[in-house]
Amino acid sequence: MNLATDTLAKVSLENARILVVDDQPINIQVINQILGSSFQLRFAKSGQEALDICLSDPPDLILMDVIMPDLDGLTTCKIIKNTPNISDIPVVFITSLQKAEEENACWQAGGIDYMTKPVNPLPLTNRVNAHLTQKFQADLLKKLAYLDGLTGVYNRRYLDDYLARQTSQAKRTNHAISLLMIDIDYFKQFNDEYGHLVADDQLKLTAYTIKESLHRPTDIVARYGGEEFICVLPDTGAEGAKHVAELILNNIRALEIPHKLSPHKYLTVSVGTATIEAKQNYNIELTALADKNLYKAKHTGRNKAI
C-alpha cells in the first residue's frame, strides 16, 4: 500500500465540523438531535451569519436551508463558491421545496446534494458521512500534492501559491510580511564526503528543525530546491524576521552535525531575510530580495543571517 492509499484509508470523521444554517429553531433542533452526538455542530440563523462563520472558522460541511430572510440559501451558496478561501466547503441543501426547478436551482447554485424536509435520520446521517469522507480524502490528496517527497515540508508549488495569497492579504490589510531564504552551508562537500544517504537524512533533519522553529500556524517552511528552504512569515516585520532567523540558526547549530569540510566543523545554514513593512511598497519581490541577502551572508563567512 502506497503513502496516498494508506493515508486515505485512515480518514476519520471524529472531529468533523458541520455548520447548520436555518432560520427556524425547530429545524436546527431536529438536526442537532440526529447529528449532535457524532459531529461538532455550529448553527447560523441567516445567510450572513453563515458567511461570517465560514470566513472566520470554516466548517467541513454546510447543511443549508433555502428560504431565509434577507440573504437566502441559494445566494449564500453562490457567494461561498465564489470566495477562494472557502469555495471548497461542500453545501447540502435541506429544504421544503420539492419542485424540479427548485431542486435544479440548488444544483446550479453550487450545492452537492439536496434533501427535503422533514429529514429522515438514517439517510441524513449516511449522506453526511459520505460527503465528509469525500471532502477529507480530497483535502488529504491536495495536501500530499503540496508536500516535498523527501523532507515532508511544503514544496515549491505550494510555496508559490501561499506566498502570493499572503502578500495579497498583507496588501489588503496593510500588514507586514517577511520571507527567509535558507541554504545549508557547504552541502555539496557534505554530500561528497558522507554520501547521498547520510546527506538526505541531514536534509530531512534540517527541514524538520526549521519547521519546529516556527511557532505560529500561519508561518510555513517549504523546500525551494536542492538544499534551499524558504519560510513565509505573515504579519511579521524586519525585527520579527531577524528573531526567527536567529532562532533557526541556533537550532541548527545545536544539532552539532559533524561536517569536517566546513570551517565551522558542523553543519550550518545561512539565511537571507526580506520584509515588506506595514503600509509600504507591496510590489517588492520578496524572494529576489531574500536571495540577494542570502548571497551576502554566504560571501561574508556563512553561518549567519542578513
Question: Can you walk me through this structure?
Answer:
The protein has helices at residues 3-9, 25-35, 47-56, 73-81, 100-109, 121-145, 156-173, 187-194, 196-212, 238-255, 286-298, and strands at 17-21, 40-44, 61-64, 91-95, 113-116, 177-184, 220-225, 228-234, 269-276. It is α/β, with parallel strands linked by helices. It folds into 2 domains: 3-145, Rossmann fold; 156-298, Reverse transcriptase/Diguanylate cyclase domain (Alpha-Beta Plaits, 2-Layer Sandwich). The strands form 2 sheets. It has a 5-stranded parallel β-sheet, with helices on both faces. Strand 3, helix 4 and strand 4 form a beta-alpha-beta unit. The longest helix has 25 residues, at 121-145. The radius of gyration is 24 Å and the shape is elongated. The mean pLDDT is 93. One of its GO terms (molecular function) is diguanylate cyclase activity. This is diguanylate cyclase. Its cofactor is Mg(2+). The modification 4-aspartylphosphate is found at residue 65. It catalyses: 2 GTP = 3',3'-c-di-GMP + 2 diphosphate.
**Number of alpha- plus pi-helical segments:** 11
Oligomer: single chain
Largest sheet: 5 strands, parallel
Residue windows where pLDDT falls under 50 for at least 5 positions: none
Tell me the strand percentage band. 15-25%
Number of strand segments: 9
Topology at a glance:
Layout: H1 3-9, E1 17-21, H2 25-35, E2 40-44, H3 47-56, E3 61-64, H4 73-81, E4 91-95, H5 100-109, E5 113-116, H6 121-145, H7 156-173, E6 177-184, H8 187-194, H9 196-212, E7 220-225, E8 228-234, H10 238-255, E9 269-276, H11 286-298
